[in-house]
């Protein structure tokens, strides 16, 4: 009996040892992810898809963790004339099917991007300034722009390069089946089962830094509670988009680690100054007010004084956000340390309202999404309470993004006061997307739903857009942002953070753009 | 019989027509799906170009006519989110939902019938009272909560079963199914059980009520007087008589299980059409929403028709003819 027991325990030990060896050899990563990715890197431009595409495909220019541009499939680039950019392509790069990467694939990819049919979220916007592409030789390519465009390289980190040989004449569905999903990226396609998972394998001949994982299993679990449960149950190694309210509980559990990092997204209140007699604003008795109080800078300033950003971050977001003072997060071009929020001061807010002619406040509807940003509905309720404390009578209305956005778009939204979020692409681009006068022809103020129009600010933006020198650009952006914030064009609330959780024994560096990347995960040794 | 089937098919088609028009108008009223996917690099020019390319700039009636004429050609349009045929997006997820719904029905019948019979034969006993309270509980607990609880107990704490997903699938006649592999079965059990709870409670109660009612009836007494064995009375005479309401309810419920597995599928990350419809509504993916609902209406009608036929076969009192209604 005792011999039998010792034998069996030895056998067990041996099995365990083998199992652990096996685990150590095949480095597998199982990710539980919120969103179903598009395998076609030119279909449906949302942040999540941009992150996913980086596993399979490369771009000419990469943006590193701090937002700086670094060489990708292009090794260097220069503006040879005012409207001509020359890119030198990396040699000896091979697609997953073994065919070589050449300038012709760039031409094919850029040509396909605006032509993907039935695409509600096109990537074409980044390439709109290019009027002509000239191939100089197999690894040199020129882009001719319609006017001087110093930002062209900045617009490339989302334009993925696919193979002409594999994808010519193919549709989005051929990418889903894997037939056309041939890139040059660090991982290759293995399998995609819609609604279930995407399986990827390491690309052994990747030109860049080799992937740490042999196999990646990306499981699609949109429900937050289910994703967290899958992590706790050990079915996955990593879960993205952890709801802040789960974080305190998760931190208590030994088997998981919570990783947080800053996000590119700034959440703000948008006062609409374009509406003349908005229905959303009334006297406290319910009669129409007859004018739009937010046209008065003192009213917008009063709101800013009346919002306790620190309290909001601590209570509503479990401390997982950073109070914001401007429309670009720290670490990105154009962020200014010097810019500060007005301090939280109810008395001052009330005084400003009285000065503007509203000693008794007024009733106002505050519209927010309830499924777009982290805890947006709760943020909205708390905002409502804060506005009530400075003497307004707010009515909080939260809606799904699919209802909210069609009603609150440029050139003039229907909501007089709304919550919005902006993800900066490496610099203070909010200046020309939200705050510049709406200008359809020039593609400025594209998301300006508040009707803001300010010649001085527009002038500052015009100078920025003609400036190539980074240091100079930074100064100009800081100056323009300081001006916009002094006019309270929008009221920044906080910068989101990216919260990802892994099992014990894994490391993860959250990406500022909220991408979920297998490349950023590693074993903790 | 043929008249009956033709009548049912016509009804189903009329329902599809009305439903699709309603859904179409409702989504049109919410807004332009392009707005949901706006990105920082899109200018008004691109937004308009995309809206036009998707045919979303046309007036409602033109969009609907275009849609109907496409459907007649078997084309539900291309999904805004997946960029592939909406019908194939729905169809490729249908097997998962069907498997889940059938598994739930089988669990409900396997547990519900014997339990209902047992307690129905001993009404008022302690077991009877216990079963009755448990079934009330199964009815009243929200599926969502019960599902999370099952995951917490059996997956997170005990780690007996996986938390979500479909596990390994093997192809059966070209359709991927989970129930043929051990790994797949382990994935299937919790969601199927979760989905079966209300139906299970319903079947227990129906079986019990039928048993209690029928055991006092003359034909049972007569059978007893004839000296027929008790097991034969229960399994042949009784079961056949109480089967009709149970079968009808199970059949009708199967339709609901397929259509409304939404909650369970979301909690357990089960890749079926329920999970798909939630995501599609959030993203205003109209082609998928319409294709999904058309599919559900057709399935629903088809199952109801099968149930009616089955009932007629079991119960000779029910005759199917044009004048039955």
- The number of helical segments of chain B is 13
User: Unreliable runs of chain B, pLDDT <50, ≥5 residues?
Assistant: none
For the sheet with most strands of chain A, the description reads: 9 strands, mixed
- Rg of chain B, please? 24 Å
Question: How is this structure best described in words?
Answer:
- The complex is a heterodimer of chains A (525) and B (325).
- In chain A, a hairpin with a 2-residue loop joins strand 7 and strand 8 (140-145).
- Residues 1-8 and 14-24 of chain A have low confidence and may be disordered.
- In chain A, strands 1, 10, 11, 12, 13, 14, 16, 19 and 20 form a 9-stranded mixed sheet that branches. In chain A, strands 5-6-8-7 form a 4-stranded antiparallel sheet, covered by helices on one side. Chain A has a 3-stranded mixed sheet with strand order 15-17-18.
- Chain A is of the alpha+beta class and 525 residues long.
- Chain A contains 15 helices and 22 strands.
- Chain B has a two-stranded antiparallel ribbon.
- The two termini of chain B are 13 Å apart.
- Chain B is globular.
- Chain B is 74% helix and 2% strand.
- In chain B, helix 1 (2-30) runs antiparallel to helix 13.
- The chains are: A alpha+beta (525), B mainly alpha (325).
- The interface between A and B is large, with 64 and 60 residues.
């Amino acid at each position: 009996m005792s011999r039998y027991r010792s034998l069996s325990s030895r056998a067990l030990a041996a099995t365990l040892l083998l199992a652990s060896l096996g685990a150590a050899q095949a480095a597998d990563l199982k990710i539980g992810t919120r969103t179903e990715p598009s395998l076609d890197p030119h279909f449906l431009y949302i942040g999540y898809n941009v992150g996913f595409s980086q596993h399979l495909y490369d771009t000419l220019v990469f943006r590193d963790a701090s937002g700086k541009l670094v060489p990708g499939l292009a090794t260097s680039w220069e503006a040879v004339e005012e409207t001509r950019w020359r890119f030198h392509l990396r040699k000896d790069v091979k697609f997953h099917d073994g065919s070589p990467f050449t300038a012709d694939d760039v031409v094919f990819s850029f040509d396909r991007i605006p032509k993907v049919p039935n695409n509600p979220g096109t990537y074409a916007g980044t390439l709109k300034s290019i009027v002509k592409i000239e191939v100089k030789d197999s690894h040199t390519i020129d882009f001719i722009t319609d006017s001087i465009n110093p930002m062209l390289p900045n617009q490339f980190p989302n334009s993925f390069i696919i193979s002409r040989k594999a994808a010519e004449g193919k549709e989005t569905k051929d990418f889903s089946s894997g037939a056309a999903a041939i890139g040059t990226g660090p991982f290759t396609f293995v399998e995609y089962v819609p609604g279930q998972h995407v399986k990827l394998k390491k690309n052994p001949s990747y030109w860049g830094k080799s992937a740490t994982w042999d196999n990646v299993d990306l499981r699609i679990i949109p429900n937050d509670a289910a994703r967290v449960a899958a992590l706790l149950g050990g079915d996955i190694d990593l879960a993205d988009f952890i709801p802040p309210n789960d974080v305190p509980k998760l931190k208590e559990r030994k088997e998981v680690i919570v990783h947080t990092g800053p996000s590119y997204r700034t959440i703000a209140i948008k006062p609409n100054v374009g509406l003349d007699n908005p229905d959303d604003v009334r006297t406290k008795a319910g009669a129409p007010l007859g004018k739009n109080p937010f046209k008065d800078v003192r009213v917008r300033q009063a709101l800013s004084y009346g919002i306790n950003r620190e309290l909001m971050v601590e209570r509503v977001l479990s401390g997982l956000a950073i109070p914001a003072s401007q429309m670009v997060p720290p670490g990105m071009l154009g962020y200014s340390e010097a810019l500060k929020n007005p301090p939280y001061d109810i008395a001052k807010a009330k005084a400003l309202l009285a000065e503007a002619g509203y000693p008794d406040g007024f009733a106002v509807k505050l519209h927010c999404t309830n499924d777009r940003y982290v805890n947006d509905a709760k943020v909205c309720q708390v905002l409502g309470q804060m506005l009530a404390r400075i003497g307004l009578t707010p009515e909080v209305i939260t809606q799904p993004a699919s209802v909210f956005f069609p009603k609150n778009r440029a050139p003039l939204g229907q909501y007089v006061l709304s919550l919005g979020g902006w993800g900066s692409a490496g610099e203070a681009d909010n200046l020309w997307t939200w705050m510049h006068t709406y200008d359809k022809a020039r593609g400025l103020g594209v998301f300006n739903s508040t009707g803001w129009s300010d010649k001085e600010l527009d002038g500052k933006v015009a100078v920025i857009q003609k400036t190539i020198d980074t240091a100079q650009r930074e100064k100009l952006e800081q100056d323009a942002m300081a001006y916009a914030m002094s006019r309270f064009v929008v009221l920044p609330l906080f910068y989101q953070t990216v919260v990802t959780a892994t099992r014990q024994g894994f490391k993860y560096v959250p990406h500022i753009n909220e991408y979920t990347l297998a490349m950023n995960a590693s074993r903790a040794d | 019989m043929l008249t009956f089937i033709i009548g049912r098919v016509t009804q189903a088609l009329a329902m599809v027509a009305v439903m699709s028009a309603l859904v179409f108008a409702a989504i049109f009223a919410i807004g332009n799906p392009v707005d949901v996917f706006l990105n920082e690099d899109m200018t008004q020019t691109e937004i308009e170009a995309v809206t036009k390319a998707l045919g979303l700039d046309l007036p409602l009636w033109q969009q609907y006519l275009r849609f109907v004429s496409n459907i007649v050609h078997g084309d539900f349009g291309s999904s805004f989110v997946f960029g592939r045929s909406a019908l194939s997006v729905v169809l490729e997820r249908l097997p998962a939902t069907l498997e889940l719904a059938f598994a739930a029905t089988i669990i409900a019948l396997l547990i519900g019938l014997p339990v209902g019979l047992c307690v129905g034969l001993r009404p008022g006993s302690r077991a009877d009272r216990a079963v009755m309270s448990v079934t009330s509980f199964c009815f009243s607990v929200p599926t969502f909560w019960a599902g999370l609880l099952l995951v917490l107990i059996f997956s997170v704490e005990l780690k007996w079963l996986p938390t979500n997903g479909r596990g390994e699938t093997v192809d059966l006649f070209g359709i991927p199914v989970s129930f043929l592999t051990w790994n797949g079965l382990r994935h299937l059990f919790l969601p199927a059980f979760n989905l079966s709870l209300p139906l299970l409670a319903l079947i227990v109660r129906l079986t019990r009520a039928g048993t209690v009612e029928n055991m006092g009836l003359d034909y049972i007494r007569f059978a007893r007087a004839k000296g027929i064995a008790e097991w034969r009375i229960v399994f042949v005479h009784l079961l056949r008589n109480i089967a009709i309401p149970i079968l009808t309810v199970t059949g009708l419920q199967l339709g609901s299980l397929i259509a409304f597995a939404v909650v369970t599928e979301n909690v357990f990350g089960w890749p079926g059409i329920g999970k798909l419809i939630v995501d599609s509504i959030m993203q205003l993916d109209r082609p998928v929403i319409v294709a999904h609902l058309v599919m559900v209406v057709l399935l629903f009608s088809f199952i109801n028709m099968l149930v009616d036929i089955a009932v007629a076969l079991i119960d000779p009192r029910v005759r199917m003819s044009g004048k039955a209604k």
